[in-house]
Specification:
single chain; 293 residues; alpha/beta; Rossmann fold; 6-stranded mixed β-sheet; 10 helices; 28% strand; globular
């Protein structure tokens, strides 16, 4: 499958900091590509270069094998992490205003249906809930019928119901043949939506590939979690275990032998959980557990 977008050895330097330090990856057509990383990792700076908002100090970005130009800007849609909407405008008016900025536009009626805006078309944009606002911003990002859509943490601050509803909208966008580049801090979101991911930290790519394959490459088949408070005092922790957020986490290829060992230890196993390692486990393993500002 041909690459739609390529980043080659991108570098971005600000006073006193090398925010992006040689990042390279490619995005395939019709896929959801996840750009993941902790705060300060360089992903927002990378997104801004991909979107054409800022220029790299070195390296290059290619769209369909050519450098970014005006045609590229008209071929992409962007849902920013935060977007200011015009005051005293209805949802309908806002959509038509943004559509007027482009030579090519999608059918407004289809966008209204796609993003579930029918019931709020005459509502002032200042009165929208978080979920309603994000659905409007998605429609605005699609108003020029882009082939490539950038979404920068589109579900931040949404409640679980609104977040899952928005996931369904992204999946519908992908089904319509669009390509999506997504940043998110929700690893469950990335695992569900993304076909491919890169994880960046300190301005460099530290992992890339398909989410499931990356998890399998870094972890055994099973993770067993037990509250640290129920572990017998003075008893050594099992091999391949670590303490995290008040839990003892134990990784193993076979659960039964480990469960027998835990039973012999005398620990209370009533709150024991046996789970499959996921993308969040991988993210924390690669980027650390420490708090980032």
């Amino acid at each position: 499958m041909a690459h739609l977008l390529e980043a080659r050895d991108l570098v971005k330097v600000f006073p006193g900091i090398r925010a992006v330090d040689g990042i390279s990856f490619s995005v395939e057509r019709g896929r959801c590509f996840g750009l993941l990383g902790p705060n300060g990792a360089g992903k927002t700076t990378t997104m801004e270069m991909l979107e054409g908002i800022s220029r790299p100090a070195s390296g290059e970005i290619l769209y369909e094998g050519r450098e970014l130009d005006r045609a590229y800007r008209e071929d992409i849609g962007i849902q920013f992490q935060s977007t200011a909407l015009q005051d005293f405008q209805t949802v309908r008016e806002s959509l038509h205003m943004f559509a007027s900025l482009y030579r090519r536009t999608a059918a407004i009626g289809e966008l209204i249906t796609l993003c579930n805006l029918e019931e709020i078309l005459d509502q002032d944009t200042r009165q929208l809930s978080g979920g309603q606002r994000q659905r409007l911003l998605l429609a605005i990002a699609l108003v020029n019928d882009p082939r490539l859509v950038f979404m920068d943490e589109p579900t931040t601050g949404l409640d679980p119901q609104a977040r899952r509803n928005f996931w369904g909208l992204i999946e519908t966008v992908l089904q319509r043949g669009k390509t999506v580049v997504l940043t998110t801090h929700y690893m469950e979101e990335a695992q569900r939506l993304c076909d491919d991911i890169v994880i960046v930290d300190h301005g460099r790519v530290i992992a890339r590939g398909r989410p499931g394959e990356l998890v399998q490459a870094h972890f055994p088949a099973v993770v067993v979690r037990l509250p640290a408070s129920v572990w017998p005092a003075g008893q050594p922790l099992p091999a391949n275990s670590e303490l995290r957020n008040g839990y003892i986490e134990m990784f193993t290829g076979e659960a039964p032998p480990l469960l027998e060992q835990l039973k012999r230890s005398g620990a209370n196993l009533n709150e024991l959980k046996v789970e499959t390692p996921n993308l969040e486990d991988l993210f924390l393993k690669l980027t650390g557990h420490g708090l980032r500002n």
